[in-house]
């Protein structure tokens, strides 16, 4: 049943914008007390009848008004009598001026807050898009706001989980310092990603037949950093399906980026020549190249330019019919109007893949497209890809650990070792136990030694959660015991991450109780979103310092983390390989905890990396720490003693893995 809209929500986005613009004009021209009071009353009414009200935010209005009043009073205009001292003057004229200024600014702020709280970013775009010359800029700015909002929410959640308190205005102001230091470099980093997404969403006619030639290619990301790829020579004929293999850090992502034009249009630099579908990537704009070559980043959010699912897919499809059809194929046809930031990680991947299926590119470059998909999502994607290749023959290069599901498509395998091509072979020569083991692709893991679970140390009791008015969790009850390894599974968008963030204290339920004895550590699905500090050393010491450990204990914890991750203490997390960031986040999250939650920890890791994480899990459960792994990887699930299935915000199974 639809709820009746109230306040500004009742109006269309454009009419809401007119209301705000009109209030801005009135703010300028109202210069008497009766008019200011009437304006304030209008602002109060508009704010109070709105659907969404934020009382912490609204406090800024009277505080600002009081400051404006005080300023005008103590700096009254001279020549009207009154009291004077040094630079200060107080008189009746200043009092009246301050009353007008303070009152009208409160009214204007209340109307502005009502607009902000009732208008989503897509609606703001709709309200402003009629200004055609400014439309691209409006979209770029609002997309930037969307990215900053995502970073702000993730970093705030990370700080809460790590133990920073936000229970007073002074604490909140103090916490803004590490938050600002962490978010500024991320904004700069996301500017690059946003530029790539913007250019790649320009529809251009595809050229060539999908052939590819790399001649003596050397790639680096900075003159201060070593080459990531060295002497790459590769020729691919149009229509080939190539599986790209290599251990973590071998250069797979970099090779796909240089072919896709991301290097050097957006980041990094290379020597040599790359010709993709008849175009020299060095001399071809990314906007033009993207019509023929499509690169899919391992971070799906970085691939978006639209604000909503419908807007994103419309940029890439020929028409709305085609757009809606590809969304249906990927199982997200009902999310047309949903904002990008409100999608789960798996839903974001489905949207990116839907965009690929709607394209007419001659070369498709997939960087780990299936790691965040549930088993059904992987089947749907590969089935759709099969049909797509029949109708639109093109070249495919894919790097993904789920090789067994990709194997039937593969016509050729290229492997990388330490930035160079080591093997260029037929599928039959590669898909053997010896070769798969060599490239860390055998995903069979030894279960940790069983530990008899102890007392309950964390509990969710009949928990309900709503986000932006949408019910996400519907009565979740879950117990965790000392030394227990639990795997949480379920379809994309089922509420798994929300449930675990609620258990960790980052999200407050609207109903039910959440209790934990001791700290709860959490590693995000995208670990790069939670790193706070600018060096590995500072990242590892961040939580211990919050918990007021003594210097000796902090030094020992940092040394242990450095040894386990193998990272340089002064390395910047923003410059690390995704697998290294994952390891850093895991190590940093183990400070003073009783529960550790790992959300999709296998993403970006090869089999050796996953085995290393499971060895750490073994050590933790032996210490009596409960570990929860959220995953779609069934091989990882087999290592647990208990599995919990969440679907549509409810637990549908909670029991032994053997029964599951």
Beta-strand percentage?
Answer: 15-25%
**pLDDT under 50 segments (min length 5)?**
none
User: What is the number of beta strands?
Assistant: 21
Overall residue-averaged pLDDT value: 87
| Strand arrangement, major sheet | 8-9-10-5-11-12
Helix and strand content put the structural class at: alpha/beta
Membrane topology: Multi-pass membrane protein
Subcellular location: Membrane
Main location: membrane
Protein name: ABC transporter domain-containing protein
Features:
660 residues, Rossmann fold, 44% helix, 6-stranded mixed β-sheet, 24 helices, single chain, alpha/beta
Structure, explained:
It is a single chain. The chain has about 650 residues and is of the alpha/beta class. The protein has 4 domains: about 110 residues, no CATH class; about 70 residues, no CATH class; about 230 residues, 3-Layer(aba) Sandwich (Rossmann fold); about 200 residues, Rossmann fold (3-Layer(aba) Sandwich), CATH 3.40.50. About 45% of the residues lie in helices and about 20% in strands. It has 24 helices and 21 strands. A 6-stranded mixed beta sheet has the order 8-9-10-5-11-12, sandwiched between helices. A hairpin with a 2-residue loop joins β1 and β2. α4 runs antiparallel to α5. The two termini are about 35 Å apart. About 45% of the residues are buried. The model has no long low-confidence stretch (mean pLDDT about 85). GO terms for molecular function: ATP binding; ATP hydrolysis activity; ATPase-coupled transmembrane transporter activity. InterPro entries: AAA+_ATPase, ABC/ECF_trnsptr_transmembrane, ABC_transporter-like_ATP-bd, ABC_transporter-like_CS, ABC_transpr_CbiO/EcfA_su, ECF_ABC_transporter_ATP-bd, P-loop_NTPase. It comes from Candidatus Shapirobacteria bacterium CG08_land_8_20_14_0_20_39_18.
């Amino acid at each position: 049943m639809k709820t009746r809209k109230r306040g500004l929500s009742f109006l269309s986005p454009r009419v809401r914008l007119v209301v705000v613009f009109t209030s801005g004009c009135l703010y300028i021209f109202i210069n008497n007390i009766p008019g200011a009071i009437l304006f304030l009353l209008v602002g109060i009414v508009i704010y109070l009848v709105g659907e969404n009200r934020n009382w912490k935010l609204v406090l800024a209005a009277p505080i600002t008004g009081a400051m404006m009043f005080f300023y005008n009073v103590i700096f009254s205009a001279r020549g009207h009598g009154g009291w004077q001292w040094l630079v200060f003057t107080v008189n009746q004229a200043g009092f009246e001026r301050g009353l007008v200024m303070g009152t009208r600014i409160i009214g204007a702020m209340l109307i502005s807050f009502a607009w902000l709280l009732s208008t989503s970013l897509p609606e703001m775009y709709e309200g402003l898009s009629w200004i055609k010359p400014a439309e691209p800029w409006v979209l770029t700015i609002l997309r930037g706001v969307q990215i900053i909002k995502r970073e702000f929410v993730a970093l705030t959640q990370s700080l809460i989980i790590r133990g920073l308190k936000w229970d007073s205005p002074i604490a909140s102001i103090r916490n803004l310092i590490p938050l600002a230091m962490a978010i500024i470099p991320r904004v700069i980093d996301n500017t690059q990603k946003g530029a790539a997404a913007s250019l790649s969403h320009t529809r251009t006619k595809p050229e060539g037949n999908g052939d590819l030639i790399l001649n003596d290619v050397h790639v680096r990301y900075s003159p201060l950093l070593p080459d990531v790829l060295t002497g790459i020579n590769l020729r691919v004929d149009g229509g080939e399906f190539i599986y790209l293999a290599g251990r973590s850090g071998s250069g797979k992502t970099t090779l796909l980026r240089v072919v896709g034009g991301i290097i050097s249009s957006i980041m990094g630099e290379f020597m040599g020549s790359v010709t993709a579908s008849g175009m020299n990537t060095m001399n071809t704009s990314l906007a033009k190249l993207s019509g023929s070559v499509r690169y899919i980043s391992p971070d799906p959010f970085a691939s978006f330019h639209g604000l909503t699912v419908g807007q994103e897919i419309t940029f890439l499809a020929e028409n709305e019919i085609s757009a809606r059809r590809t969304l249906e194929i990927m199982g997200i046809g009902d999310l047309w109007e949903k904002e990008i930031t409100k999608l789960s990680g798996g839903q974001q991947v489905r949207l990116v893949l839907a965009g690929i299926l709607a394209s007419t590119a001659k070369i498709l470059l997939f960087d780990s497209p299936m790691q965040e998909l549930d088993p059904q999502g992987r089947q749907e994607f590969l089935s759709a890809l099969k049909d797509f290749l029949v109708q639109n023959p093109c070249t495919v290069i894919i790097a993904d650990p789920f090789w067994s599901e990709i194997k039937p498509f593969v016509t050729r395998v290229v492997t990388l070792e330490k930035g160079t091509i080591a093997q260029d072979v037929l599928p039959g020569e590669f898909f053997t136990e010896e070769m798969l083991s060599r490239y860390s692709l055998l995903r069979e893991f030894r279960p940790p030694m069983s530990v008899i679970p102890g007392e309950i140390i964390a509990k969710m009791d009949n928990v309900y959660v709503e986000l932006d008015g949408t019910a996400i969790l519907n009565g979740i009850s879950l117990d965790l015991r000392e030394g227990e390894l639990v795997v949480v599974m379920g379809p994309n968008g089922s509420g798994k991450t929300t449930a675990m963030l609620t258990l960790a204290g980052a999200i407050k339920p609207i109903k039910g109780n959440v209790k934990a004895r001791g700290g709860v550590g959490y590693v995000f699905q995208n670990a790069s979103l939670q790193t706070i500090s600018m060096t590995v050393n500072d990242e590892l010491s961040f939580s211990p310092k919050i918990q007021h450990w003594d210097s000796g204990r902090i030094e020992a914890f940092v040394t242990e983390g450095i040894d386990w991750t193998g990272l340089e203490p002064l390395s910047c997390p923003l410059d690390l390989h995704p697998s290294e960031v994952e390891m850093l986040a895991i190590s940093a999250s183990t400070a003073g905890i009783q529960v550790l939650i790992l959300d999709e920890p296998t993403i970006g890791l090869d089999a050796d990396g996953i085995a290393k994480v499971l060895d750490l899990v073994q050590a933790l459960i032996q210490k009596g720490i409960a570990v929860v792994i959220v995953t779609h990887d069934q091989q990882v699930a087999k290592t647990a003693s208990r599995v919990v299935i969440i679907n549509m915000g409810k637990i549908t199974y909670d029991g032994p893995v053997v029964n599951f």
